[in-house]
Fold:
Amino acid sequence: MKKLIGVALAGAIVAVGAAWFFFWPAPLPAVALSAASPTGQDLIAKGEYLAKAADCAACHTAPGGMKLAGGLAFKLPFGTIYAPNITPDREFGIGAWSDAEFVRALRKGLGRHGEDLYPAFPYTSFALLSTDDALAIRAYLASVSAAAVPSRPNDLWFPFNQRYVMRGWKLLFMPDGPYAPDRSKTTEWNRGAYLVEALAHCGECHTPRNLLFATKSDAKFSGAVVEGLKAYNITPDRQSGTGEWTDAELAAYLSSGHAEGHGGTSGSMAEAVNLSLRLLSAHDIASMVTYMRTVPSLPSTLAGPVERSPASLASSGPWTPQPTTASSEGLKIFQGACASCHGWDGNGQQSPSASLRGARTVNDPDGTNLVRLILNGVHMSSPTGDRNMPSFAAAYTDADVAAVSNYVLAHFGNKAGQVTPGIVAKARRD
Ligand code: HEC
Ligand code: HEC
Ligand code: HEC
Structure:
């Protein structure tokens, strides 16, 4: 039934889109910096900071490719979209675009010639940007090295390859920008809301989507599965969200990727921290925490409660597991491959940031993020030295990864892990 409604809705949206195609000439408003905006180098520096907060480079840079010269592939059920070259190259990048065309791309999701862009480009967030901030980002992008690299064309099925199809969708789901401050709240709260909603686009990963791939406004930040990873509930719910975290813990997690008593980070969140969040000022991080504290608390079935002090940790030493454990395949693998960095008592061996105590990922019986982390490893950048966990994909079989995952879930989370070799095999293919 849900599928049928989805198909009917999609049909309706295509029809609305086709109708608007003929009647919606998009006027291009002139844009200019306000008198309050910095200029010259200061404007470029401001734009560089905002581009980091918005993580433009994460999507627009391919692994090993030139910065901002085009990048990630977004695999959708109806084809693949590629992030284009946004360096100042006049032929292949956006060097020949006018400022007005650039601001319109961010705020309206339209390409240079008014064609509709796909929302894999998070313009539903960027629509909230102020004109001054959009122009600052423009000034920064104009200052980076031009890359003469053609963008890879999208590869989508009919009718989704018809860009006007997006018009109906945008009509329904585009917010009315730019961000309007809530005068009943503090300046800090408003700064946090602007950073979270307009720039950092946390909801693009943490908010579940409806049948039309739009984020559900009534389930905001309550957690979603993105590219095989659980982007957990980040509302203040006590069980499945961040209700048990202190402000300082939340700030530490966002700015370093680790919070004592809540574990570390991996996958796309590690990337968001490495490339974007850790580079933000302490004041901006604190503002984001202030705002996140006030979003409606929602429960989620994505992940269950976290056990912070299982007996197995209290009775283990840093170098030895609790004496009562029966030896198992998983324990042996943990001993050989993991214990030197993580230890047995939950406190972390290589560094305090390798502590696993209280981590959501070692408390989720599905082991969804855990399996991917073991297969892919993780790299965290930090001013005091980078932290690395190697990839174990080549070293271990599916059965090995399943065994060590279930061992980790039992030992660190007191959970009955449900990981099977089949689940690991599937995670390798994704
Ligand atoms: C989550 C990934 C993601 C992020 C973050 C992102 N983009 Fe994009 N962007 C895309 C994708 C994908 C497209 C292509 C959409 C399409 O083909 O319709 C795109 C398209 C664009 C375009 C249109 C280019 C063209 O040739 O038509 C511009 C301009 C742009 N992005 C600028 C930015 C800027 C500036 C930022 C940061 C403020 C940013 N993007 C952040 C994914 C992203
Ligand atoms: C060379 C050291 C090293 C080895 C070996 C290692 N890890 Fe890690 N591990 C890390 C680091 C560093 C992090 C990231 C901590 C952070 O985010 O700051 C991490 C993170 C983790 C996390 C936490 C992720 C989260 O989201 O909370 C888990 C779980 C984990 N490792 C399990 C394992 C398992 C299981 C093995 C063995 C198969 C292993 N690690 C081997 C260094 C290591
Ligand atoms: C590109 C996708 C993506 C974006 C953008 C993103 N997150 Fe995440 N986030 C994730 C994933 C995936 C995880 C799970 C990481 C793991 O397994 O260690 C996560 C984990 C977290 C956690 C830990 C929750 C827990 O219970 O352990 C917090 C807190 C968090 N994110 C907050 C944020 C905030 C705030 C923002 C915006 C500033 C944000 N995230 C943006 C994907 C994302």
